[in-house]
Amino acid sequence: MHNLQMVDLKRQYNKIKPEIDAAIQNVLDSTTFIGGPDVHSFAKELSEYLGVKHTIPCANGTDALQIALMALGLQPGDEVITASYTYIATVEVMALLRLKPVFVDVDAETFTMNIDSVKAAITPKTKAIVPVHLYGQSAHMEPLLALAKEHNIPVIEDNAQAIGGTYTFSDGRTVKNGTMGIISCTSFFPSKNLGCYGDGGAMFTNDDALAEKLRMIANHGQKVRYYHEMVGCNSRLDSIQAAVLRVKLKHLDEYCDARRAVADYYDNAFKDNPNIVTPYRAPYSHHVFHQYTLQLKNVSRDDVPVKLADRKVPSMIYYPVPCHKQNMLKDFGGADYVLPVTDMLQDCVISLPIHTEMTTEELEYITKNFIEVINELAK
Ligand SMILES: *Cc1c(COP(=O)(O)O)cnc(C)c1O
């Protein structure tokens, strides 16, 4: 098997090359590299796709989270509750703004924020809650939104990994991820489910006043050029990236389906193996499998990636060190926290290749070799 990758962007590009090349050429011909019609149209098209009033594009997903926290007017020392089991960006921006991240555990089945842990973590200083739709599965938003409402705490969704996915409320209402928080954030990093060919991100809201504030913060705190009302930053989605994203947005649903088909194949191949726990699919979430992450039992996980690499099967550990144990965040975490599920996952998860262009032949090869490696290492 030749050159297997976690994400194969080249094959995806080759399939849509005429559309992408024309879109990029169009920007080159216009020489409108910042702002301009593609950025405007992309924001409008993405708002329509998601069913949200405002899409505010920005430079990357990390900026989106930072600007969202700034727009809520949080003050140094304010507490923000989030899961420790996430990508560092979710928490890094809190530290940067001198807020206090408060870590909660995740649910053992879904890997997303455990609602009882959130309840226990709320104090009078809690000023925001940031759930993460990890690996493509929605956090359990209905109880979380109810809890947040009861305490009058705004919720910011980190939707960097689950764009295109949906959440279904108990009354049957189904909405897209990224439309439930007062503000939601996403990333268009190339390997994300909706990825561009560089960096990009966006914020979403249904609140007109917040939309204006997010826009101003992303643009040096100005609404009228050269009249700066507040401290902001410079965070823009450039026109070439917007042009690429307009093409790829048209394929997003089909890309989500392709990822789910890969996950189905893996689930089926691993379902009878006592050493492999396949990802749980919560009934309220239409999982879009940004990652296919499983748990290993009776196997020393750290021996697995090397053995797989010997067989040319790539794998990744998302994430080997949860945020509360990162040196960067030592002032906020460390031994003060007891997060048993997070600790357990840190040692037993492994992610396999998943992308939109995988062939049955590749899946057969990966699953066969993965099962052999796991059985060989199983105690
Ligand atoms: C990718 C990611 C981000 C950050 O996005 P960038 O565009 O890389 O800045 C934030 N949160 C999560 C959960 C992510 O996966």
Written description of the protein model:
The chain has 379 residues and is α+β, with helices and mostly antiparallel strands. It folds into two domains: 9-104 and 112-249, Aspartate Aminotransferase, domain 2 (3-Layer(aba) Sandwich); 252-377, Aspartate Aminotransferase, domain 1. Helices cover 39% and strands 15% of the residues. The chain has twelve helices and 15 strands. It has helices at residues 9-30, 37-50, 61-71, 89-96, 115-121, 141-150, 208-218, 239-249, 252-270, 304-310, 340-348, 360-377, and strands at residues 54-58, 79-83, 100-104, 126-130, 156-158, 166-168, 174-176, 183-187, 201-205, 222-224, 227-228, 276-277, 285-286, 292-296, 349-352. It has a four-stranded mixed beta sheet with strand order 1-9-8-5. Helix 9 runs parallel beside helix 12. The longest helix is centred in the first third of the chain and has 22 residues, at 9-30. The chain is globular, with a radius of gyration of 21 Å. Residues 60-62, 86-87, 89-90, 132, 158, 160-161, 187, 189, 199, 201 line the site of pyridoxal-5'-phosphate (PLP).
Summarize the structure.
By secondary structure, the chain is an alpha+beta fold. It is built from twelve helices and 15 strands.
Poorly predicted parts:
none
CATH class of the largest domain: Alpha Beta
- DSSP E strands, number: 15
Strand proportion, as a percent range, falls in 15-25%
* Structural classification: alpha+beta
Task: Give the overall shape, derived from the CA principal axes.
Answer: globular
How would a crystallographer describe the biggest sheet?
Answer: 4 strands, mixed
CATH architecture designation of the largest domain:
3-Layer(aba) Sandwich
The CATH homologous superfamily of the largest domain = Type I PLP-dependent aspartate aminotransferase-like (Major domain)
Helicity range: 25-40%
CATH topology of the largest domain: Aspartate Aminotransferase, domain 2
Give the end-to-end Cα distance, rounded to a whole number of Å: 28 Å
